[in-house]
Structure formats: structure tokens, C-alpha cells
Amino acid sequence: MMIRDIVYFMSLGAILGVAKQNNTEVISTGAAQKDAARPDSIQRILVVDDSRAQRSLMSRSLAKQGYQVTEAGSGLEAIKLFAAQEFDLILSDWMMPGMDGLELCKAIRSQTANGYVYFILLTSKSDKDAVSRGLNVGADDFLAKPFNPDELRARISAGGRILSMERELQETNRLVSSALAELKTLYDSLDRDLVEARKMQQSLVRESFRDWGRAEVSLLLKPCGHVGGDLVGFFDAGKDHIAFYSIDVSGHGIASALLTARLASYLSEGSPTHNIALIERNDGDHRRQPPEIVAAQLNTLLTKDMLSEHYFTMLFGYLDMTTGRVEFTQCGHPNAVVLNRSGRAHFIGEGGMPIGLISDAEFERQTLNLQLGERLIFYSDGFTECENVQKDQIEEQGFGEILEKNSGLTNEMLFDAMVWDLDRFAGGQEFGDDLSCVMLTYKSQT
Question: What is the pLDDT of residues 309-340, one digit of tens each?
Fold first, then answer.
């Protein structure tokens, strides 16, 4: 709010003029009114009294103080003036024929188009019951008759302070409403962009299932918001080999989603020459980079080239479809799980260092041999860190139980059952993190 300096101008030889129009007397102070810049919120006053002498006396007293004063001889006349003009304060006699001061006050309060108007009742009544009745219908203050000019001035000043605060509050509310409207417009625009961003992120998973004959891979990607920081995928890694990975970027939202898009370009099957895991040979074919080397190169990109504030965890591996041998590296990602043919879940992993935290971090290779019919699952911590209403996490044990319970299902049906049971554990709460999963099924050596 702006603080205005209080400036009073004294005008010598002020001329008092009285103009009559439509049985209403409008009092002005000539040059004094023109030059006086009142500092309070009360400029225009409506004086209502059935006594012409009382109205004139009060109007002249107010006009000398620089107010714009309009007179009304009855409550009905005051209502008509109020409908046609704007007033800051109404000074009304209580006892009037026809519509008295209380009825006038009640009628004024029922009309809100002109904003709040300060209402002072002039009365010779002093008992508490009368005061209570006046307050109940909406009067703001009382002034005893006959009035004292100094007391009148003080009560109008008090009303001015109240009106000033009320109008400042109205302006603040207007600004807040305007800001909220702008924010809603921005939010709607951002929401539309995020919907499109979600579609684009989902498009990073070009295929949710592929069958190589001797093995098949299924993917699940379920962001907890519009966009997320999880990424899963697979690609052909040369003769008899499949590459597959699960990535979880730190944080949530747009920044994390942008990093997943960048990472997807480094592990794309559509452009082997730009795939960081593949090196082109002289014969035009591509050979595989060891999984720990892939992790090290991604770590260099993140810490030295991209200079991102984010880091990510990852499981990245290759399957040799002729032997069932899997080579993989674990970079701070949750432990992998093998689901054997009898439906038992066995977790495998050694932790490892996330990618993007330390520039010279080292990564290790792990190996395992899948038997025919076994499934290897890489998943994000959105599964194991899911919380119930008591804030207890499901952890590996609970997640393993979900897998074992639904081990008779395959591919998409298994994913649906996993999410369903996880939702049941969470008690119907929104998931606090993205859910992603890549499941490799080893079917045959021939």
C-alpha cells in the first residue's frame, strides 16, 4: 500500500455556496474544496435529517472541513441518492417520519454494489438496548444530539481509518484474485505442456515387449506425476545378445525427465552409432562395451560434460541367449531379483556407486546364469520404498512376496498384479515415487 503525505491547504476568503437541485441541497466550499486534498478515505458525505435547520447546520460544519456534502430530507430520498451516487459516509438522524434511521441503515446494508459505506446514527437515545439495535442492523457508530463539531470530526476520522483499511483490503483482494487468475492461466498452460511431456516420455519406451524367440523382455514405466525420472529399455546388442537396463534419476519432475530423455538417446537402439554401449567394428557390425565401462562413460558424461546437479542409479546388463549368462553392473540401484521356475524370488546385488556423484567412481561387473524359464527383474525403488498409511516401507521382503504370489502370471499381467498389490499395501494412497521395471525371461537355448 502507498503511504500518502498529509497535506492541508489553507484557502483565504473561501466562498460558501448553496445550490438547490431536485429538493436536495449540495454544499461546497468553493476554493477551499478545490484546493483541499483530504488524506483520509472519506470525501463524500450524505447527511440525512428531516429537519432542514439540523441538516444545514451539520452540512456547513462538514463543508468547512473540506468534505463534499449532499443533503437528503428523508430516508426514501437518501435511498434514491444512494442508488444514483457514491458516498463514503452516511450521517443519519435516527428519528424520522416514514423510514427512520434504522430502516435506512438496513436498506443501505442490503445494497453492496457501491462498496462499503460508513454509517453514523445521530440520536438522543443513550440506553444500551438502543445502541444494540443500531449495531445489529449495521450502524458503525453513534453521535449524540446535539452534536459537538470536534466530536463529529473525530468520529468521521475514525470512520475514515476503517474505510481506508477496508479499501486497502479490497485492493489487496483484487490483486490476489488477479494474481490467482494469472497463476491459473500459467498452471493450465503448464499442465497442458506436462501432459505432452508425459506422452513424449512414454514414447521413449518404443516397445513395451519384444520376443527374441529364445528370450523375451517386458517393460513397465509408471510415473507418479505427469513426468518422472525413471527409464527402462532394451536393445539388440549384437549376435545372440540382448542389452537391458533400469535407470532412476534423482528427484522428480521436468528436470529429471529431461535427463532421462538425454540418457535414452545414449542407449538407443534406433541409432547404434550413437549408442554408448556399442562400438562399431571395421566390418560395420557393432561390439558390446563391458557393462562397467558403459557405467563409467555415463559417469564421465554426467560429471564432466553435462555438469548436471542430478545423479542416477542404474542396473545395466547383457544376456547371452545361447548360454543364459548375464553380465551386469549395479550402480546404486535396488538389487536385481531372479524369479525361478518354482515361483521363488531371489535377490542379487552388491549395491555399487550411483552415477554422477563422484567423477572418478569405479564400477564393477557381476555375473549370473539364468536357467530356462527363469526371469530376471530390474526395478526401481518405487516398489521397495512404497509406504503404507503407517509410513512403513514394503522393502525387499514384501516386494518378493508380491512377486511370488503372482509368479504364475507373465509379462503385462504380472506387472498389473504387482501394481495392484502395491496399491493395496499403500492403502489406496498415491504412490510417492515412480514405478518402473524391466523383466527378462530366458526361454530356450536353441
Answer: 889 999 999 999 999 999 999 999 999 999 99
Measured between alpha carbons, how far is 335 from 345 in angstroms, rounded to an integer?
Answer: 12
Q: Grid coordinates standing for 272?
A: 547404434
CATH class for the region spanning 204-442:
alpha beta
In whole angstroms, give the CA distance from residue 140 to residue 131. Answer: 10
H helices of 244-369, in order, are 254-266, 291-300
Cell of 248: 532412476
The three cell numbers of residue 68 are 463534499
Pairing of strands 366-369, 89-93: unpaired
Cα separation of 262 and 273, whole Å? 16
Cβ atoms of residues 79 and 111 within 8 Å: no
Q: What contacts 423, CB < 8 A, 6 or more positions away?
A: 431
**CATH class in words for 17-172:** alpha beta
Q: What is the largest CA-CA distance in the chain?
A: 116
Residue labelled with grid coordinates 477551499: 32
- What confidence tens digit (pLDDT) does each residue in 342-372 have? 999 999 998 999 999 998 899 999 999 999 9
Domains in the chain: boundaries: 17-172, 204-442
